[in-house]
Design brief:
Rossmann fold, 9 helices, 10 strands, 38% helix, elongated
Length: 273
Amino acid sequence: MKKIIVPLDFSEQSEYALKVAVSLAKKHDSEILALHMLELNQAMITSSEGFHPEQTVFLIKLAEKRFNEFLKKPYLEGVKVTPIIKHYKVFSEVNAIAEEHKAELVVMGSHGTDGLEEIFIGSNAEKVVRNSEVPVLVIKNEIANFSINRFVFACDFREESIPAYKKAKAFADLLKADLDLVYINTPGDNFLSSADIYKRVNAFIGKVNEALQVEIYNDYSVERGVLNYSESNSADAIGIPTHGRRGLSHFFMGSIGEDIVNHSKIPVVTFKI
């Protein structure tokens, strides 16, 4: 893990994410790309009508000064930090920055149960996850000496989930965490018999050509199942797959993925299929 992107908006939550990134950087000798996105729009930067250019320059300089001061934290000592400032808050740029700098992880802050706010506001979270080819680690609370010992990865074990599984396995191996695989079985249209589940899981195992152990957990919804299973097994983090630009995976239809991120008490990592 050579480079980690951390979007920062000066909020408490983004600093929680920065501290986690620092913990990872120190363990893996990584560089942190500290990303700040201004609220300026194209008209403010290019037009002199209704807004004076010198005011735009002043706002940019002020933001740069505040950003540099924000990065003067004692816990950043000994870690290489490269500040990156973008003039617009366009979250699809996160993936472009990851590609340009060959970053391997994005660490973001979230407010959690009160809704995805600040840098994780509304569709911005979805945009980052949809566009990010690299895993996105979501942090909501301050975590001292961040580490993951038990990592739960939940998916539907269809063939299309194999790329996400491989990324989750690589992530777990990097952090030297135990990877706990789970299938959440729910009532209604998505219910599968034990025989059907084992048939799907065995087909999945055959495709990845690995000896895997998959738990089957029954609950009233996928979200509650993932959260309850993770809590009952003392997981340190949860992994979920996403389909990127095509929306959330079949297993995580609708807002289930966001709900898991929003309501989870522990960090969540999303992996692109």
